[in-house]
Amino acid sequence: MRSLSYAAPLALLACSIAAASAEDKSPCSQTVSVPLQSRAVLTIDSKPAGLEIVGTDGEELHVSCTAGTEGTARDASLHFSPTATGGNLTIHGPELHHGNNNLQVRIEVPRRTNLRVHILAGQVTVEGVKGDKDIEVTAGQITISSIHAGDYRSVDASVGIGQVQARAFGVDKGGFFRSFKRENASGDYRLQAHVTTGQIDLVGTGGQNGDGPKPD
Q1: Ramachandran class of 179: left when φ > 0, alpha when ψ lies in -120 to 50, beta otherwise
Q2: 36, 44, 216: which is closest to 133 by C-alpha?
Q3: β-strand pairing of 103-110 with 60-67
Q4: Nearest to 96 by CA among 129, 130, 127, 50
Q5: What is the residue-wise DSSP string for 12-59?
Q6: Cα 34 off chain centre by
Q7: H helices present in 80-134, as ranges
Q8: Where are the alpha helices (DSSP H) in the chain?
Q9: Span 11-54, pLDDT tens digits
Q10: Distance separating alpha carbons of residues 36 and 113, to the nearest angstrom
């Protein structure tokens, strides 16, 4: 009898936790807007999709989602959880069918935001964001625009199979296991980008400081 008296409250607690988790997810059709301070660390973990990350003058995270099919819209959802240093954004969606699953997500962040992004497949574009960047794509493409080479203390870009086009640093490499590294003692930020199969584009202007590109 004692075990039965404990079982009911525990079952109720489990159901409450599950319900709260479900309520925390926003459907693709619903925009997510939450406060996010400048210089915060934003971690993004996404199912296959096209991610457009844009820097703005506000101090909030604004996420909107567009699905190309009814099935993708039904399966896609957004979840944000705050942390001591910023927050975690999780983009749920269907397993990979082709390309980015007809799922496009626009993520507006403060102009000074540190980004950590992991996505299985798709495209990640970053425009007008100053801060550390650690971006990994298994299959697809990374494009980072508005780069000022002198802003970066260290750069490490690599592909398993594909191409690294880093015009901001005067680099263009293609083939197997292509990479380059750059150090600049006067820079402020760290940039690390890796694509297992695909392409990296680093677009912007070069700087005068630091060493030149170093092939591995």
Answers
A1: beta
A2: 44
A3: antiparallel
A4: 50
A5: HHHHHHHHHHHHH-EETTS-EEEE--TT-EEEEEESSEEEEEEEESSS
A6: 17
A7: none
A8: 2-24, 70-75
A9: 443 343 333 333 478 888 889 999 999 999 999 999 889 999 99
A10: 9
